[in-house]
Amino acid sequence: MSNISDVETYEMLYGQLQAVVNRLEQGDLPLAEALMLYEQGTRLAAACQKLLDHAEMRVQELRSDEVYPDLDLEA
Amino acid sequence: MHQALSVSAVTTYLRELLESHPLLGDLWVQGEVAEFKRHAASGHCYFSLKDEGGLVRAVMWRSNAVRLSQLPRMGDLVLAHGYLSLYAPRGELQLYADTLLPAGVGLLYARFEALRARLEAEGLFAIERKRPLPRLPRRIGLVTAPGGAALQDMLTILARRCPLSEVLVAPCLVQGERAPASIVAALTTVYAAGVDLVILARGGGSLEDLWAFNDEAVARAVFASPVPLITGVGHETDTTMVDYVADLRAPTPSAAAELAVPEHDDLSALVWQSRMRLDQSVDALLNRTQADLANARSTIDRHTPLRRLARDRQQVDDLGRHLDRAVDRTTAMRQLALQGLVARLATLSPQATLQRGYAVVRHATTGHVLGSVIGVPSGTPLQIDLRDGTLAAVTVPLAEEESE
C-alpha cells in the first residue's frame, strides 16, 4: 500500500484546481499570468479526470486469527 | 443457632440473597396482569402477575413506565423483565420491572425491546451524535462475511462508483453463537487500521440469522467507532440494534455501498464545472483586454498629432507669408537706395567732366591715370579718354624747354 492514496492525490489536484479557478475568477491578473494559470488549470482538470476514469480500486483483506478464527465461512 | 435474629436482619439477608442471585437478578417473567395501578402523583406503576399456580407482586418506577407505549390492562398476558427483591416493610417478594411487553411478541422480541430501551436511555441512538459521512472517503473498512454475496455486491458498487477509494475488508462471522465476538473483533481491527468510513453489512436472512446484529456488545462496538459507520444489515424491512446506533442506516449492503461514496459522474461533473469556470474566466479576461485595447485606440485617435500637424502647417504658411512680405519690403528699400546712389554716382562721374571738354590721360600699358609729368619720360605710350572716344599718343620732348 502506497503512502498516498488515490483519493489523496485526487483531492490534492482538485484542491489546486479550485485554487487556480478562484484566483482566475478574481480577475485582477496580468494577461500573461492569467494564461499561465489557465494552462495549469486545464492540466489539473485533465489529471483529475484521468484519475477518475482510470483508477482501479485497491482492496486489501485484514485477516487475523482473532478476527476470523478457523471456522467455516458459510454465512 | 441460639440467638434470635431481628426482623430487619432477616429481611436484609433475604434481600441481599435475592438480588445477588444470577437468575433472579436478571429475569424474564411471563404472566397475566392483575390489579394494575398507576400512582397518579408519583407515576410509579404497581401491579401483580399471576397464572393458575401463583402470583408475584411487581412495581415499575416512573422512569421505566414512561417508555410504555400503552399501559397494560387486567387480564393481559405480558412479559416482564427485571429483578426480584424483598419489600421489607411488608415482607413481600416483589419484581422490580424495567420492561413490560405483550407476551405475544415472543421472548426474542421482548429482549430486543428491552435492550433498545436501555441503550436509547443511555444515549447510544442520539441524533446529535450522528456524524456526517466523509464527502470522498480515502479508505473504507468493510466488516462482513468473506464469502457472501453482500461483499461482492459492495465491492462491485464501490469499484464502479468510486475506484479512487481504497477498501479494507475485515471478514467476520455474521451468524451463530460466535458471530458477535467475531464482529466486535473485526470492527476493532478496522478501527485500528485507520479508515475514515466503516460499513457493517450482512445479506438478508431470518430474524434469528440477523440476531448477532442485535447483540449488546456489537451495538456498543458500533457506538465506539471513531469514524462514521454505515450499517446495511438484511433487507429493507429488517431493523437491528446496530441500525439504531450507526451514523447512517442503509436498507441493504448494496445501498450502504452506494451511500458510502459519490458517483463517478458526480465527481466528473465537478471537474467539468471547474474546467468551464476556467474557460469562462479566461474568455472574460480576453474580452476585457480586447475592450481595453479598443478603448485605448479611440483615445489615441482623439489625441492624434495629425490635428496639431494641420494647425502647425497653417501656422508655417502664415509665417512664410510674413517672411515673404518682409523680404519683399527689404528688397524694395534696397532698390530705392541703390537708385539714389547710382544718381549720386552719376553726378560724380568723370564722364560729365569729359562732356565739359576735359580729357583723362592714362599710361597706355599700366592704365594709371597720369596727374603729373614727373615719371613720364618721352616716348611713354598714352591713352587719352575724351568725351566721345579714346586717342592713343606718345610723349615727345618739348622743343622750347630744350631750347632755353
Number of helices of chain A: 2
Strand order in the largest sheet of chain B: 1-2-3-5-4
Work out the strand percent of chain B.
Answer: 15-25%
Query: What structural class is derived from the secondary structure elements of chain B?
Result: alpha/beta
Overall residue-averaged pLDDT value of chain A: 79
Describe this structure in words.
The complex is a heterodimer of chains A (75) and B (404). With 75 residues, chain A is mostly helical. Chain A is built from two helices and one strand. Chain A has helices at 6-26, 31-54; one strand at residues 59-61. In chain A, α1 (6-26) runs antiparallel to α2 (31-54). The longest helix of chain A has 24 residues, at 31-54. By secondary structure, chain B is α/β, with parallel strands linked by helices. Chain B folds into three domains: 7-122, OB fold (Dihydrolipoamide Acetyltransferase, E2P), CATH 2.40.50; 136-262, Rossmann fold (3-Layer(aba) Sandwich); 354-403, no CATH class. Chain B is 44% helix and 22% strand. In chain B, the strands form three sheets. Chain B has a five-stranded mixed β-barrel with strand order 1-2-3-5-4. The longest helix of chain B is centred in the C-terminal third of the chain and has 44 residues, at 305-348. The mean pLDDT of chain B is 88. At the A-B interface, α1, α2 and β1 of A face α4, β7, α5 and α9 of B. β1 (59-61) of chain A pairs parallel with β7 (166-171) of chain B.
Layout of helices and strands, plus pairs?
The complex is a heterodimer of chains A (75) and B (404).
Chain A: H1 6-26, H2 31-54, E1 59-61
Chain B: H1 7-19, E1 27-38, E2 45-51, E3 54-60, H2 62-65, E4 77-87, E5 92-102, H3 106-122, E6 139-144, H4 149-161, E7 166-171, H5 179-193, E8 197-202, H6 216-223, E9 229-233, H7 241-245, E10 248-250, H8 253-260, H9 264-302, H10 305-348, H11 350-355, E11 360-363, E12 381-386, E13 389-394, H12 399-403
Parallel strand pairs in B: 3-5, 6-7, 6-8, 8-9, 9-10
Antiparallel strand pairs in B: 1-2, 1-4, 2-3, 4-5, 11-12, 12-13
InterPro entries (chain A): Exonuc_VII_S, Exonuc_VII_ssu_sf
Function (chain A): Bidirectionally degrades single-stranded DNA into large acid-insoluble oligonucleotides, which are then degraded further into small acid-soluble oligonucleotides.
Enzyme class (chain A): hydrolase
